[in-house]
Amino acid sequence: MKTLVLTGIREIEMIDSPEPILKNPDDVLIRIKTVGVCGSDIHYFTEGKIGSQVVKFPFTVGHECSGIVEKTGSAVTRVKPGDLVAVDPSIHCGTCDQCLAGRPHTCRNNRFLGCPGQIDGCLTEYIVMPEFTCFALSPKFDATTAALIEPLTIGTYSVELAQTDFRNKTVGIFGAGPIGLSVLMVLKTMDPAKILCFEPLEYRRKKASDLGASSVFNPIETSPAKVTQETEPLLLDVVFDCSGEQQAIDEAVRIIKPGGKLILVGIPPEGKYTINMDILRRNEISIHNVRRQNHCVERAILLVENGLPIDQMVTHHFSPEVTQQAFEMVSGYQDGVIKAMINFS
Ligand SMILES: [Zn+2]
Ligand SMILES: [Zn+2]
Prior knowledge:
About 25% of the residues lie in helices and about 25% in strands. By secondary structure, the chain is of the alpha/beta class. It folds into 2 domains: about 1-145 and about 310-345, Alpha-Beta Complex (Quinone Oxidoreductase, Chain A, domain 1); about 155-290, 3-Layer(aba) Sandwich (Rossmann fold), CATH 3.40.50.720. Strands 3, 6, 7, 10, 11, 18 and 19 form a 7-stranded mixed sheet that branches. It has a 6-stranded parallel sheet with strand order 14-13-12-15-16-17, with helices on both faces. Helix 4 (about 150-160) packs across helix 5 and helix 4 (about 150-160) packs across helix 10 (about 295-305). The longest helix is centred in the middle third of the chain and has 13 residues, at about 150-160. The model has no long low-confidence stretch (mean pLDDT about 95). Bound molecules: zinc ion (2 copies). One zinc ion (ZN) binds near residues 40, 63, 64 and 151.
């Protein structure tokens, strides 16, 4: 089968590799249909690592996928051959303290698709996953919307972690990439009074506007603190950082009202932020970190069933043969790219 491997920094090759086989009774063989290119894949492509997670070449990345069930192990009941499935890329052990505490996403023995040192990613024709990671979808879904369930779960979970009744609340979002837009789309279903979005790229601001942001600003040209004080003098209830930029964190703490919340969704490239503790303490702002998602796949599927236009973020489709080109485009923010998808069949 065709498999894409990272062979070095900014080098992707297509190789022929053996098809995986079912080993356990709860295994599912999935023929991959579509894979979304994620910011984390791009970090592995351009830097060979994210923080302490370092790629040993050659390695296959990719974790946002949809596919068709080809074959199932003897104990599988959730899905059947022919089903279109969204795949949760996270395999938890089910027995550690975290799993037993209802936190499979911080499982001590977690293995994640396309995560270095864990399991090979889904940029390939077939993968085998345990049935609990497979979610059969209704005919409302196509392969693209199915592959977008994974990034949508991050947005869904981030909003849930804020533990806020968003009706009549004011919200800020830094970064209108796929995750920022996912957060925006989920928030839109919860009737906040206003969503202010800060994003340096014009075409992404336009997309955020189209998807319902109340106002969009270029944080390079317009000071987020100034513009928020002018338009929302009491400041914002909750701010989501989906950029991972130090500058965004500096601005974010200045536009959150006393008692408000900062939700950290973006990943800082250096693995560190400095935070103005004076503002944070005086205003008693809480910070919440987001680790991928927990128990949000079904909710994300339901949101799409109910009309959430997740496919609006897709700007480009590629065949597997030109995956290198797709990664170059996403890493360079070329051609108005927001979400790029690789289609296997
Ligand atoms: Zn991702
Ligand atoms: Zn566990």
